[in-house]
Design a protein that fits this description.
heterotrimer; A alpha+beta (166); B alpha/beta (798); C alpha+beta (281); A: 166 residues; three-stranded antiparallel beta sheet; three-stranded mixed beta sheet; B: 798 residues; Dimethylsulfoxide Reductase, domain 2; Barwin-like endoglucanases; 3 domains; six-stranded mixed beta sheet; three-stranded parallel beta sheet; 23 helices
Chain lengths: 166, 798, 281
């Protein structure tokens, strides 16, 4: 009955056995909030699966949740700032720090050129409607908080919106 | 209803399936026979757009069959409250309520208010007064009979009656029923009213504030609840405080704070929340003398919602646009107009893990524009994915869950938190020398989020600390920066700071990040130590209603929160959502503010009268009671009222946004849009993923065999679907899961379109959102894309 | 000869047997989400097979294959039309049956296909030479050779391993772990069989008259291939799910040729293995 087996079969093991750590995360797709375990070895993600400890998903995941590994570990990801100059027909890679400086400058220029302190009736409004932000539902609450704080409380942008509106 | 839970929340659906195996009945009411329908005990077809007629029918059934939960309704709802003598119901006014101004297309709701003093309204406990809410409700829904439901909704009468019987049989002291909905309800021109109708039904059946009851919004993004709470929405400040607006007369902080009296109930604490918010944002520069910096917050001057902003952008009125992980170029209504709007910008920053349709509009849009004609300066900033940053998601149950970091993001990819922090730091530097009064808000913005010691394990050493932000969200006392344990401690004198009052308590002390708790509690299915639910870790809102007016559980089987007379306190499986020491027999004070006006048996603490609102005297722009209207585009005329559609929904009357008139023969079919399990929203999180893309590789239109036969269409034939806005081509999936409805002897066809595809990714395809009109529900500004009209032909575009 | 082959192929004594492991796939609990398909591809790092719509309901996978080890079938059934139709949408996650008498294993001339200590059927990738004898042998059309370069070498045979690697650490196979509704249950075969019988009784009592088990020791499906270690609760006849009513073993019809093919096969495999090993070095 029992045949001899190959060395590879004898040595076969789950790749998570040698993980350096398993970190608790939350699925990035819908709002059910399934807990996931992210397995890391040599500073690379080697596996993402459901966290059995969670009362929400008890280790299970849907197909999107189960595919989270490929969402993160994927050669199609953008890993540099891609910049398209006005009227240009191509992307260019640009340094992150340059892009951050340029974006800050553009925000300031647009804000200063369009800022409305008072309405025609003299009401103090301190706003600009020429800058808008969109998005937040896929992001952490801490990130949403800083969007609102910076763009509304800091810059006077009123059109701050996200996926909850659609 | 209004949700396809098995397909769009499969792991959430784990629990209804478990309940089904224990004997619960799952009912699915939906235009299409979906994977939810297939696994439900009872499937009921319904024509898209007719949900209020169906729910109104159930309300009518409950009232006429005397199936309402009398003790609950009398004590906990406003059924007995008498409404102003000026009120005229839609039933007596052709489908319009009193106060309608056709000129502005809006309501003045003064006549919808309660009779008597605002906080001590007149009541008739016998429910006989002709103007008491109960009698108004009965009259309003009297014509929503099973026959009318069958006529309007196309739902067979016997199936409708089965639903009514199952719901009423499974509600009361011993049993509860829950209603789940999703964007199938919200994406209609009367979406909020559909949810209100469910609220009325659940209040009548005693299913609110009780375990196994409630109305569950099944939300679609990992932290869409968080982004609504915090929020990144134009009309709100954190914690559902209204955003200051010119039209509301919020000229000064004092004027703004009148809202606390308008709302009453627990909202009387609003001044504490807003002053603490201003203290969190502007630090020591928020002082009593300068209204705590209130004027640095911009005032709204109109509708600045996403849809309205898109229209303004298309008209060249928006110059700069920052897009965080969203994809309007194919994910937002009237996607063609969205793309055109992007060409009108001076600059756009798109932050994402992948190149989205939005980032690529300038060279890859189907319009075939020449890049040389497009001025927009575009930045695609790479961001971090799951496991590459830490922070908090708030799930659809209001549960905050912290996720830890496992690795650095690759290359120049950074967390959005990094982007925001370092952008803010740069902007503060650019404005450092400004003396301009309107720049002082930015200059004074507290912005100290770098960690004391960066984690040596990671390459990225200038990553801000999410926990530092969460600490500010939680709140602290200003004098000593000690964290506060919950929002009860907030003050309106400037001594406390708190970023999001409803989240207060999430991080009460160093090392006690409760969103990061991952402990199970054996013997308590509530699992109160897994994460942190707002407010104050309450898992079911208004759970005082799980006990009877005397504070005893309605039944042993459904016990949840109750009054412990010995201890003089509320207690139970969950954190009581009620003042802990307020005994059930505490009388309401005749005067005072806020909670003083509530008795010990008024569970709905956020309402001025402490009651669940069957009738909404305020808060809604389209009427105090849900009323059936047809969608803005419909092949049918309204069977219930002369008024065809919502009198206050916003249509964008623009040449590039034509809307078909009712019964337009050029667009005879209903079209509805949706998601499937295997893809995700606009596709930017799934169409770069080969494992998901192979499962649903191509765009398709689901049509019935009847429509296919009429048009000579075979399965997988190419078809063109058109609306007055645009037309798209895709393959036909001919299936009995889509069925036509009969109305007055005519066959009304429906076409179903998933909206996941676009022009970037491993798999590409036509965009359903190209067909959708710009429109807005009047309360929450959401477009109608669950019920539109279209035409369909065999063939290709060219 | 066998000893020589063993030395040559670097073979080892098999680990001591453990309790037989398997799947009970209860289609009455399947919601057709395909988490099993993706969880399998993720854990085993299998490539996608292609991006074409089939038009067959929501099934764009089509069939099990060398790089698709779980396959969710969608069967639309409807009677009458108009608004009062009776309809069902059957969903079933198909997988290798890990037969007690596995035809693939019997057909394998190289010893690549083995029965593991968990009584599952497993293809040893360092042995398989891609001869393909196993492919037509399987009465369910499960095992297949890799058609194009991917995670695996072209031509080698693959199928569900019942997550052999995970089993070694007492981990649940990826598909069963991910399944949100416990349609796929993993465990000791005997215990699963007991559970299945009980479940069938419950469903019958509830009025599910068409429910039946497929692959149980007492079922006629076991006549030749023996009990299936991955067995099913179905809501219709096996044919509705493309399952043979009685799966046949090729040896019954090919008994005479079998002896020859095995001998020839082993000889062929030894040569092939030598060449192959040389090529790898």
């Amino acid at each position: 009955m029992a045949q001899p087996v190959s060395r590879e079969s004898i040595e076969k093991e789950p790749r998570t056995r040698r993980a350096d750590k398993a970190v608790a995360s939350v699925c990035p797709y819908c709002a059910v909030g399934c807990s996931q375990l992210v397995y890391v070895r040599d500073k690379r993600i080697i596996d993402i699966e459901g966290n059995p400890a969670s009362p929400i998903n008890e280790g299970t995941l849907c197909p999107k949740g189960a595919s989270t590994f490929q969402y993160v570990v994927n050669p199609n990801r953008v890993t540099t700032v891609r910049y398209r100059a006005p009227y240009s027909d191509h992307w260019e890679d640009r340094p992150l720090e340059w892009a951050m400086d340029r974006i800050a400058t553009l925000i300031k220029e647009t804000r200063d050129a369009t800022f409305v302190e008072r309405t025609a009736e003299g009401k103090l409004v301190n706003q600009t409607t020429a800058i808008a932000t969109l998005g937040g539902a896929t992001m952490d609450i801490e990130e949403n908080y800083l969007i609102k704080k910076l763009f509304s409380g800091g810059l006077g942008v009123v059109s701050i919106e996200n996926q909850a509106r659609i | 209803m209004g949700s396809n839970m098995a397909e769009n929340h499969p792991v959430g659906y784990r629990w209804p399936m478990k309940a089904r195996e224990k004997g619960a009945t799952i009912i699915h009411v939906d235009p299409r026979f979906t994977r939810t329908s297939a696994t439900a005990n009872l499937y009921v077809p319904i024509r898209s757009g007719s949900d209020i007629a169906f729910l109104g029918g159930l309300i009518n059934y409950v009232l006429t069959h005397d199936q309402w939960f009398k003790e609950y309704v009398l004590a906990y709802t406003n059924a007995s409250t008498i409404v102003s003598g000026d009120y005229v119901d839609a039933e007596d006014n052709g489908g319009l309520f009193s106060g309608y101004d056709p000129q502005s297309g809006s309501y003045d709701n003064a006549s919808w208010s309660y009779a008597g003093p605002p906080h001590g309204p007149a009541r008739d406990e016998t429910l006989q007064h002709p103007r008491c809410v109960f009698q108004i409700l009965k009259r309003h829904y009297a014509r929503y009979t099973p026959e009318m439901v069958e006529r309007v909704c196309g739902s067979p009468k016997e199936l409708f009656l089965q639903v009514a019987e199952v719901l009423t049989k499974n509600s009361g002291r011993e049993r509860t029923s829950a209603i789940c909905y999703a964007v199938g309800w919200t994406q209609q021109s009367y979406g909020a009213q559909i949810i209100r109708a469910a609220g009325i039904l659940q209040l009548l059946l005693g299913n609110i504030g009780r375990p196994g009851g409630g109305i569950m919004a099944l939300r679609g993004h990992a932290s869409i609840q968080g982004s609504t709470d915090v929020p990144t929405l134009f009309d709100l400040l954190p914690g559902y405080l209204p955003h200051p607006a010119v039209i509301r007369g919020d000229d000064t902080l004092e004027q703004y704070m009148r809202e606390s009296l308008v709302r009453g109930g627990y909202w009387s604490n609003l001044p504490k929340f807003v002053v603490s918010l201003l203290r969190a944002w502007y630090g020591d520069e928020a002082r009593k003398e300068n209204e705590y910096g209130y004027q640095w917050i911009p005032k709204l001057t109109g509708d600045h919602s996403h849809v309205s902003t898109s229209a303004a952008m298309a008209d060249g009125k928006v110059k700069g646009f920052v897009v965080f992980g969203q994809n309007p170029a194919n994910g937002s209504p009237h996607a063609g107009l969205q793309r055109k709007a992007l060409t009108q910008l001076d600059w756009m920053v798109a932050l994402d893990l992948y190149e989205t349709e939005t980032a690529a509009f300038w060279y890859a849009a189907p319009e075939g524009w020449k890049p040389a004609d497009i001025k927009t300066e575009v930045f695609l900033v790479p961001t971090a994915g799951p496991g590459e940053k830490e922070g908090t998601f708030t799930n659809t149950q209001r549960l905050l869950q912290y996720h830890d970091k496992a690795v650095d993001p690759p290359g120049d990819a950074r967390s959005d938190l990094w982007f925001l922090y370092h952008l803010g730091r740069r902007l503060k530097e650019l404005y450092l020398e400004s003396a301009n009064p309107h720049d002082q808000g930015l200059r004074n913005l507290t912005w100290d989020y770098l960690p004391e010691r960066p984690d040596p394990e990671y390459r990225i050493q200038d990553e801000p600390s999410a926990e530092k932000v969460l600490m500010e969200v939680n709140g602290y006392t200003v004098a000593d920066h000690e964290r506060i344990p919950g929002f009860e401690r907030l003050k309106d004198d400037g001594s406390t700071a708190c970023g999001v009052w409803i989240y207060s308590g999430v991080f009460p002390a160093p090392g006690q990040n409760l969103a990061r708790r991952r402990n199970r509690t054996p013997g308590n299915y509530v699992d109160p130590e897994w994460g942190f639910a707002w407010p104050g870790n309450r898992r079911i809102l208004y759970n005082r209603a799980s006990a009877d007016p005397a504070g005893k559980p309605w039944s042993e089987r459904k016990k949840y929160v109750w009054w412990d007379a010995g201890a003089g306190s509320w207690t139970g499986l969950d954190v009581p959502d009620f003042p802990l020491g307020k005994a059930p027999d505490t009388p309401a004070k005749g005067q005072g503010t806020g909670m003083d006006l509530h008795s010990g048996s008024d569970p709905f603490t956020l309402k001025a009268d402490g009651r669940g609102w069957l009738f909404a005297p305020s808060g809604l722009k389209d009427g105090p009671l849900p009323t059936h209207y047809e969608p803005l585009e419909s092949p049918l005329s309204n069977d219930l009222y002369p008024r065809q559609d919502s009198p206050v929904a916003k249509r964008f009357r623009r040449t590039d946004n034509p809307i078909s008139p009712p019964g337009d023969p050029q667009y005879p079919y209903i079209v509805t849009t949706y998601r499937v399990t295997e893809q995700y929203t606009s596709g930017s999180m799934s169409r770069w993923n080969s494992w998901l893309s192979e499962l649903m590789p191509e765009m398709f239109a689901e049509i019935s065999p009847e429509l296919a036969a009429e048009k000579g269409i075979e399965n997988l034939d190419w078809v063109v679907v058109s609306t007055p806005r645009n037309q798209i081509e895709c393959k036909a999936l001919v299936t009995r899961r889509v069925r036509p409805f009969r109305h007055n002897g005519n066959l009304i066809h429906e076409v179903g379109l998933p909206y996941h595809w676009g022009y970037k990714g491993l798999v590409t395809g036509a965009m359903a959102n190209d067909l959708v009109a710009l429109s807005e529900e009047p309360n929450v500004y959401i477009q109608e894309d669950k019920a539109l009209t279209c035409n369909l032909r065999k063939g290709r575009l060219r | 000869m066998i000893d020589g082959y063993k030395r040559l192929m670097n073979l080892e004594e098999p680990p001591p047997p453990k309790k037989a492991k398997g799947f009970f796939t209860d289609t009455s609990l399947c919601i057709g989400c395909k988490a099993c398909e993706v969880a399998c591809k993720q854990w085993n790092q299998l490539p996608a097979d292609g991006f074409a719509i089939t038009g067959n309901s929501y099934d764009n996978t089509g069939h099990l294959g060398a790089t698709t080890w779980r396959h969710v079938q969608f069967i639309e059934q409807a009677k009458a039309n108009g608004s009062r139709q009776e309809q069902r949408w059957l969903m079933m996650s198909d997988v290798c049956k890990h037969c007690a008498n596995a035809a693939c294993l019997e057909a394998c001339p190289t010893g690549a296909l083995v029965r593991t200590e968990f009584d599952t059927v497993y293809v040893q990738q360092d042995i398989c030479n891609g001869c393909g004898f196993c492919v037509p042998a399987c009465p369910f059309g499960v095992i297949d050779r890799v058609p194009k370069e991917s995670t695996f070498e072209v031509g080698t045979a693959h199928k569900c391993t019942l997550c052999y690697d995970r089993l070694k650490d007492d981990m649940t196979p990826a598909c069963a772990k991910s399944c949100p509704t416990a349609s796929i249950q993993f465990g000791d075969v005997e215990e699963l069989q007991q559970r299945a019988r009980q479940r069938l009784g419950e469903l019958k009592a509830r009025g599910e008259s068409t429910a039946r088990l497929y692959g149980m020791p007492e079922g006629k499906e076991a006549a030749e291939v023996g009990p299936l270690h991955a067995f099913f609760l179905l809501l219709d006849k096996p044919e509705a799910y493309n399952l043979p009513e009685v799966p046949r073993l090729p040896r019954k019809t090919m008994a005479e040729r079998y002896g020859w093919s095995a001998a020839v096969g082993i000889g062929f495999a030894m040569v092939a293995a030598l060449v192959f090993r040389g090529g790898r070095q």
